[in-house]
Amino acid sequence: MHVDLGNVLDTTPGLTEETLDRLDSRVADAHDRIATGMADDEFGYAALNLPETADPDAIRAATDQFDRLEAVLTVGIGGSALGAATLANALESDVDAYFLDNVDPDAVASLLDRLPLDETVVNVVSKSGTTAETLANFLVVREAMAEAGVDWTDRTLVTTGEEGNLRALADAHDLPVLDVPDGVPGRFSALSTVGLAVPALQGHDIEAILAGGRDGMESLSGSLFETPAYAYGTATYALAERGALTNAVMPYAESLETFAEWFAQLWAESLGKDGLGQTPARALGATDQHSQLQLYRAGPPDKLVSLIRPTERAETEIPETDLDGLAYLGGSSLGDLLDAEFEATEASLAAADVPNLRVEIDRVDERGLGELLYAMEAACVLYGELASVSTFTQPAVEWGKKAARGLLGGGDFPEADAVADKRELRIDGS
Ligand SMILES: O=P(O)(O)OC[C@H]1O[C@](O)(CO)[C@@H](O)[C@@H]1O
């Protein structure tokens, strides 16, 4: 993987090479803190050890127990779903992967109607074991399995922490269970049991994913000029400090669309603290050239764009044509066209003085994905050190959880009372 910072120099907002040189001493200090946290397996920093501490044999021992495998249905939310979804949606497999990471009754019913439940493994994932959406969906899925005459205890894999409802359920029914590693927040758990059980069930090379993570781990150093992850984390931090409060993440590969969703949780939940942070906007190239690019180029100078692509991709030749004005496409390929659009968008942003970073991996394969996930996690941790925020906690999400629980009679929470006090200014339609 490499990162190219050329298009953040002298843009609006922008950096200079002197600024980057000056920041590099802060990067060295931040790296020392990160290295200490990794060495001591400290909460959060432990995630950056996963390429070494994850146990692929334990993952396979749990997943190899399942036969008759046509599909895997993951029931989880946030970091308990997005890492696995990033990997599943980026890699081809004969085993279909589905994710229930929301409690929309129509979507849940529609999916359960379609799934061959007797040939599906239900992969229920929750670090806490108490997340309402995950537990509610699991209860609905289990009921559907019973109604389909499927013994749910034969088709369920649990991934959870040491305590909580799911651990108790797994123990009570002797279910295959994987441990969520200690000290790893959900959004940093892609390279652990949480993110790797699905690719293992789909027949992917999870050792290669971890090898990619090791590539990222081995590139960590005391300088942003030697570590792509730190270059990305430093530049995005410094641009945020200068007003780039939105980071539009725009992969030029459909296979990386879910990666942008995973990145959004990682970036927002880690860095959105104490009035600070950088809003991750999810985009997709080339599609969003016909959508959000207008805002990125001609809207407020308050954003940066992260352009991500594999340098090797399929070709798919475009047939020759005599259509007026389109003959230039004939004989080219869709891959060439997508790469031309990537470079054209990059140049168009630079021409409009909009800061943009190029992130390139060789291929969207297990190793490339492992390195990309690891690098963005390390970039996020580095950014958090530079911004002096508490990167690994997410206290702001708790208020809404209590309010929702109170509304459903799950306890006496003042947050739920506040819901009743909503101010109203209704404008009614027809
Ligand atoms: O794995 P759990 O405990 O169900 O949590 C799911 C998600 O909810 C959060 O805790 C936020 O509520 C995320 O940080 C986490 O990824």
UniProtKB/TrEMBL annotation:
<comment type="similarity">
    <text>Belongs to the GPI family.</text>
</comment>
<dbReference type="GO" id="GO:0051156">
    <property type="term" value="P:glucose 6-phosphate metabolic process"/>
</dbReference>
<comment type="pathway">
    <text>Carbohydrate degradation; glycolysis; D-glyceraldehyde 3-phosphate and glycerone phosphate from D-glucose: step 2/4.</text>
</comment>
<feature type="domain" description="SIS">
    <location>
        <begin position="62"/>
        <end position="219"/>
    </location>
</feature>
<feature type="active site">
    <location>
        <position position="401"/>
    </location>
</feature>
<feature type="active site">
    <location>
        <position position="290"/>
    </location>
</feature>
<dbReference type="InterPro" id="IPR035476">
    <property type="entry name" value="SIS_PGI_1"/>
</dbReference>
<comment type="function">
    <text>Catalyzes the reversible isomerization of glucose-6-phosphate to fructose-6-phosphate.</text>
</comment>
<dbReference type="GO" id="GO:0006094">
    <property type="term" value="P:gluconeogenesis"/>
</dbReference>
<dbReference type="Pfam" id="PF00342">
    <property type="entry name" value="PGI"/>
</dbReference>
<dbReference type="GO" id="GO:0005829">
    <property type="term" value="C:cytosol"/>
</dbReference>
<keyword id="KW-0413">Isomerase</keyword>
<dbReference type="InterPro" id="IPR001672">
    <property type="entry name" value="G6P_Isomerase"/>
</dbReference>
<keyword id="KW-0312">Gluconeogenesis</keyword>
<dbReference type="GO" id="GO:0048029">
    <property type="term" value="F:monosaccharide binding"/>
</dbReference>
<dbReference type="GO" id="GO:0097367">
    <property type="term" value="F:carbohydrate derivative binding"/>
</dbReference>
<keyword id="KW-0963">Cytoplasm</keyword>
<dbReference type="InterPro" id="IPR046348">
    <property type="entry name" value="SIS_dom_sf"/>
</dbReference>
<dbReference type="GO" id="GO:0006096">
    <property type="term" value="P:glycolytic process"/>
</dbReference>
<dbReference type="InterPro" id="IPR001347">
    <property type="entry name" value="SIS_dom"/>
</dbReference>
<dbReference type="InterPro" id="IPR035482">
    <property type="entry name" value="SIS_PGI_2"/>
</dbReference>
<protein>
    <recommendedName>
        <fullName>Probable glucose-6-phosphate isomerase</fullName>
        <ecNumber>5.3.1.9</ecNumber>
    </recommendedName>
</protein>
<keyword id="KW-0324">Glycolysis</keyword>
<feature type="active site" description="Proton donor">
    <location>
        <position position="269"/>
    </location>
</feature>
<dbReference type="InterPro" id="IPR018189">
    <property type="entry name" value="Phosphoglucose_isomerase_CS"/>
</dbReference>
<comment type="pathway">
    <text>Carbohydrate biosynthesis; gluconeogenesis.</text>
</comment>
<dbReference type="GO" id="GO:0004347">
    <property type="term" value="F:glucose-6-phosphate isomerase activity"/>
</dbReference>
